[in-house]
Design goal:
The chain is an alpha/beta fold. Helices cover 51% and strands 14% of the residues.
């Protein structure tokens, strides 16, 4: 049995590759069920965000699980086409990787808080799909504890740096006075909510929230003194926007080149700054070819988010120490799980022998034999039965000059020199 992690992220693959294997909320239950059916896959969970897709499994290594092949087949990709982008971790390395991801040490923005919530969502989805059991369940719970400890004991989250913050920071560089600008935010998820709050805090003139569900758009708009519209109304309001930030779960682009061209004509060529945070992308790549359009995707934000990270880098060193210790703690728990079936087998053997001898002794007592002699014989016979095989193995070990078993027996029975 072993724990494995197979994944792809912003450092191993560009966005056009990552978006090919993103699991949206609709596909995730069927993906988990399909993955769990692979021979040898005992437990499974999938983390899928704009920057990473990772599969965590507890497997029986006597089987060839072919998780890589499954990933290609599920997304209908050419076999092995992703191999150069995938990373693979096993056992201790898989545990350490998940801890580092949860503590945002592996994120595009060091220390960003969103990833922990995304991992908790992945855990809940696996629970609902009944693909997670004792080992992965304990691993994820331990992961949440480690992330909380790192947040509490270090300054990893002290600086307000995130993808959303980076997008707003770039907007401030392009528009010297945000108070005169209108921002159109497409979507109403966590990233858009953060962007809305950052824009509001930085005094942007007007915020329009466009979302498929108008009620959610209204809820967010009320918090930032914004204006809510449905996604279908978005093209009609695009010309009003100086800043466009989009992050939806759509599988197809929702802003095409033609729509943006019409908006530019209405704006009389006044430029639009666009940030597409979604994976798969919300804005057609061809939009970037238009004059007066400044289009950035998540990968383009990388340089911006390097600023203001020095304190987090120092905290990350402390976090790594915490993670290293916690990995050892979890490995120790796993080792105790390896001992459980052995302990159970020993108890079963002892119980079988004791029940057999007890029945024999009770029958002797019913026949009127002396109770003291019967009990004495029961104790002697049970002791001999239980110690016969260990004694034989120890004698064999001694004759082979193998002291490992002898030393193990000393430790097991707490025998002092």
């Amino acid at each position: 049995m072993q724990l494995v992690a197979i994944g792809i992220n912003h450092t191993s693959a560009p966005v056009n590759i990552r978006e090919q294997i993103a699991f949206n909320a609709d596909k995730l239950p069927s993906a988990l069920a399909s993955l769990h059916l692979l021979p040898g896959v005992l437990e499974a969970a999938i983390i899928s965000t704009c920057n990473r897709t990772e599969i965590y499994c507890h497997i029986n290594d006597e089987y060839d699980c072919n998780i890589d092949n499954w990933l290609h087949e599920f997304h209908q990709l050419v076999p092995e086409s992703l191999n150069q982008y995938l990373y693979r971790h096993q056992n201790k390395d898989a545990i350490q990787h998940l801890f580092r991801v949860a503590c945002a040490l592996d994120s595009m923005v060091l220390g960003e808080p969103q990833i922990l919530g995304q991992i908790k969502t992945a855990y809940s989805q696996a629970l609902n799909s009944k693909t997670i059991g004792k080992s992965l369940g304990r691993l994820f719970q331990h992961t949440f504890t480690v992330a909380k400890q790192v947040r509490t004991d270090t300054e990893i989250g002290s600086s307000p740096v995130s993808v959303a913050f980076a997008a707003v920071s770039l907007a401030k560089q392009i528009f010297s006075n945000l108070a005169e600008s209108t921002a159109l935010l497409i979507g109403a998820g966590e990233t858009i909510e953060l962007a809305a709050r950052h824009l509001h805090d930085n005094g942007v003139g007007r915020i329009i929230i466009a979302n498929r569900t108008l009620e959610r758009a209204h809820t967010l708009a009320e918090q930032v003194n914004g204006y809510a519209i449905s996604l279908s109304e978005m093209p009609a309001h695009l010309a009003e926007a100086d800043i466009v930030i989009s992050s939806t779960a759509s599988q197809l682009p929702i802003l095409g080149k033609g729509t943006v061209e019409r908006a530019l004509k209405q704006r009389k060529r006044r430029p639009i700054f666009m940030v597409d945070i979604a994976v798969p992308r919300d804005i057609e790549q061809e939009v970037s070819t238009l004059e007066d359009i400044y289009l950035y995707c998540v990968d383009d934000l990388h340089e911006i988010i390097q600023e203001n990270l020095q304190s987090r880098r120092e905290a990350a060193l402390q976090a790594e120490e915490i993670i290293e210790a916690q990995v050892e703690n979890f490995i120790a728990w796993l080792r105790t799980q390896d001992a459980v079936p052995v302990i159970r087998a020993i108890r079963d053997i002892a119980e079988t022998e004791s029940n057999h001898l007890l029945k024999k002794s009770l029958k002797q007592l019913e026949q009127g034999q002396d109770a003291e002699k019967v009990l004495s014989e029961l104790a002697r016979t049970l002791t001999n039965k239980l110690l016969h095989e260990p004694s034989r193995q120890l004698r064999q070990s001694g004759s082979n000059t193998d002291n490992n078993l002898i030393e193990a027996a000393r430790s097991l029975f707490n025998i002092k020199d």
